[in-house]
C-alpha cells in the first residue's frame, strides 16, 4: 500500500504543471538609458540585488542605448545571468534602440522584447583612440571573444546563434519584426503594459534551463530609480560636461595663480577639477590629450617668466585646443567630445588665459606708485633753499631733501631717489 502511494505521488509530481514563479512578489521596473558605462553597470547590479532581496516576481528593464564600453557590458550581463529574479529587457518605447552593447544586454535577458519602430544590433566592437582596421590583432581578439559570447548566450536561450554572430562580426542591425521572425527576440509589444499582459501565464526559461510559469496579473509594480550619487555621476559622465568642468577648474586655478589671494576662483577651480577627476573614472580618457593640455598650461605660465613676445602663448593656445579635441574618444559618439562644443570652449579658455598672461606680464613693466619707490619721478616744491640740504613738499608729504646744486625756495623739484629717508632732488 505504501509503495503504491509513493509511486502515485512521484507520478503526480512529474505530470504537475510548473509552479508559479514568485507569483506574490512585486514587479520591479527600471530603465537603462544612454551610453553603457560603469555607473550604469553598478546601477544594474544594485537593482538585481534589490529584486532578489525583495523576492520580486519579475525585473523589467526598459532600454534605449547607443552602446558603450565592453567592460561595463560584461558586468551587466553577469548581473543578469546571476539574477535569481527573471529579467526582462524591453527595447522601448517606439523609436528606441539597442545598439552595440545594448544588443548583448537584451540578448542576455530571460525575455527579450521590442516595441514597434525600434532596432537592435550593430554590435561590432570598436577600440577607442584607434583606426579599427581589420588587420588590428587586438580588435580581432575582441571580435572573436564577443562573437563566442553571443553564440553561447543564443544557444542557451534557444535563439538564432548565426544571426547573433553576424550582428557582432558584420555589424548587422535589424528591426523588431525581423528580430522576432528570425528568433532573435521573444516578443514584440506596443508598450510595457502590453508586454506584461502577454507574459502572464507564459513559461519563462531561465539561463540554467529551469522553467516556470509567470503569473503577473495584479502584481504590484515597484519603480526603481537612480540615487543622487548615480545621477551626479551620470551627469558628469557626459564628455561635454566633463570638458566644461575641466575648463572651469583650470581657469579658476590659473586666476588664483596670477592673482593670489582672490580665493574664490581657487575654491571653484579645485571643486571642478575634483568632479572632472571623477568623470575620468567613467569616461575613456586619452592621456595624450591630457598631456597636451598640461603642456599648454605650462606654456602660459612660462610666458610670465620668459619674454617670448607671444610665441609661448600661441603655443599654449594650440596645445590646449588640440588636447581638448582628443581628450575623450569613446566607442560611441555619445561618449566623445563634440567639436561644435569643444572648439568654442577651448578657444575661449585659451583666449582668457592668454589675456591674463599678457596683463600679468604687462603689469611688471608698470611704474611703482606706492611706497618709497613710488616717489621717484614725482614733482614737488622746495619749502626752503636746498643747498645742499633743505625741506621739500612731495606727494602730499614733507621730506628732508638734498640736491647736487642749489635750489631756491619755491622752485619745483623732481625726486631722483631716496636714501636714509632723505629724498634726492633736482630742479624740475
In short:
The chain folds into three domains: 210 residues, 2-enoyl-CoA Hydratase, Chain A, domain 1 (Alpha-Beta Complex), CATH 3.90.226.10; 134 residues; 56 residues, OB fold (Dihydrolipoamide Acetyltransferase, E2P) (Beta Barrel). Helix content is 47%, strand content 17%.
Please give the structural blueprint:
Layout: H1 2-15, E1 27-33, H2 38-54, E2 58-64, H3 70-82, E3 87-91, E4 97-99, H4 101-108, E5 111-114, E6 119-121, H5 137-157, H6 161-170, E7 173-175, H7 176-181, E8 187-188, H8 192-199, E9 203-205, E10 211-213, E11 221-223, H9 228-236, H10 239-258, H11 264-280, H12 287-305, H13 311-325, H14 339-363, E12 379-382, E13 389-394, E14 397-403, E15 412-419, E16 422-427
Parallel strand pairs: 1-2, 1-11, 2-3, 3-5, 4-6, 5-8, 14-16
Antiparallel strand pairs: 6-7, 9-10, 12-13, 12-15, 13-14, 15-16
Give average pLDDT, whole number: 83
> Which strand-content bin applies to the residues?
15-25%
CATH names the topology of the largest domain as 2-enoyl-CoA Hydratase, Chain A, domain 1
Number of helices: 14
Structural class: alpha/beta
Show unreliable segments.
Answer: 1-23
CATH uppermost class of the largest domain: Alpha Beta
- The CATH homologous superfamily of the largest domain: 2-enoyl-CoA Hydratase, Chain A, domain 1
Query: What's the β-strand tally?
Result: 16
CATH architecture of the largest domain: Alpha-Beta Complex
What proportion of the residues is helical, as a percent range? 40-55%
Can you list the strand order of the major beta sheet? 8-5-3-2-1-11
Integer count of domains = 3
Largest sheet: 6 strands, parallel
Amino acid at each position: 500500500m505504501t509503495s503504491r502511494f509513493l509511486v502515485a505521488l512521484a507520478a503526480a509530481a512529474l505530470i504537475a504543471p510548473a509552479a508559479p514563479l514568485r507569483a506574490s512578489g512585486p514587479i520591479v521596473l527600471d530603465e537603462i538609458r544612454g551610453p553603457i558605462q560603469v555607473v550604469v553597470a553598478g546601477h544594474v547590479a544594485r537593482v538585481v540585488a534589490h529584486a532578489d532581496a525583495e523576492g520580486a516576481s519579475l525585473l523589467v528593464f526598459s532600454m534605449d542605448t547607443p552602446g558603450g564600453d565592453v567592460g561595463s557590458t560584461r558586468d551587466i550581463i553577469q548581473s543578469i545571468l546571476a539574477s535569481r529574479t527573471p529579467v526582462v529587457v524591453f527595447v522601448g518605447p517606439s523609436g528606441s534602440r539597442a545598439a552595440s552593447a545594448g544588443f548583448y544586454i537584451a540578448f542576455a535577458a530571460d525575455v527579450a522584447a521590442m516595441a514597434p519602430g525600434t532596432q537592435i544590433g550593430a554590435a561590432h566592437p570598436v577600440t577607442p583612440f584607434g583606426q579599427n582596421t581589420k588587420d588590428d590583432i587586438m580588435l580581432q581578439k575582441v571580435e572573436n571573444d564577443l562573437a563566442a559570447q553571443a553564440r553561447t548566450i543564443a544557444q542557451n536561450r534557444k535563439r538564432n546563434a548565426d544571426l547573433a554572430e553576424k550582428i557582432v562580426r558584420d555589424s548587422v542591425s535589424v528591426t523588431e519584426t525581423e528580430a522576432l521572425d528570425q528568433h532573435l527576440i521573444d516578443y514584440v509589444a506596443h508598450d510595457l503594459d502590453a508586454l506584461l499582459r502577454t507574459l502572464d501565464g507564459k513559461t519563462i526559461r531561465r539561463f540554467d534551463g529551469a522553467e516556470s510559469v509567470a503569473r503577473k496579473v495584479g502584481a504590484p509594480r515597484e519603480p526603481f530609480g537612480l540615487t543622487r550619487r548615480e545621477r551626479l555621476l551620470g551627469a558628469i559622465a557626459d564628455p561635454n560636461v566633463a570638458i566644461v568642468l575641466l575648463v572651469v577648474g583650470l581657469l579658476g586655478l590659473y586666476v588664483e595663480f596670477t592673482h593670489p589671494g582672490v580665493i574664490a576662483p581657487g575654491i571653484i577651480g579645485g571643486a571642478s577639477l575634483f568632479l572632472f577627476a571623477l568623470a575620468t573614472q567613467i569616461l575613456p580618457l586619452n592621456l595624450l590629450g591630457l598631456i597636451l593640455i598640461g603642456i599648454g598650461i605650462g606654456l602660459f605660465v612660462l610666458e610670465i617668466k620668459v619674454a617670448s613676445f607671444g610665441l609661448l602663448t600661441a603655443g599654449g593656445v594650440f596645445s590646449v585646443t588640440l588636447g581638448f579635441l582628443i581628450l575623450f574618444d569613446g566607442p560611441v559618439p555619445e561618449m566623445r567630445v563634440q567639436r561644435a562644443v569643444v572648439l568654442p570652449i577651448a578657444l575661449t579658455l585659451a583666449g582668457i588665459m592668454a589675456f591674463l598672461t599678457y596683463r600679468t606680464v604687462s603689469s611688471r613693466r608698470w611704474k611703482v606708485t606706492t611706497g618709497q619707490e613710488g616717489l621717484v619721478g614725482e614733482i614737488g616744491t622746495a619749502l626752503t633753499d636746498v643747498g645742499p640740504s633743505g625741506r621739500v613738499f612731495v606727494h602730499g608729504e614733507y621730506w628732508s631733501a638734498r640736491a647736487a646744486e642749489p635750489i631756491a625756495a619755491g622752485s619745483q623739484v623732481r625726486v631722483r631717489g631716496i636714501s636714509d629717508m632723505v629724498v634726492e632732488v633736482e630742479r624740475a
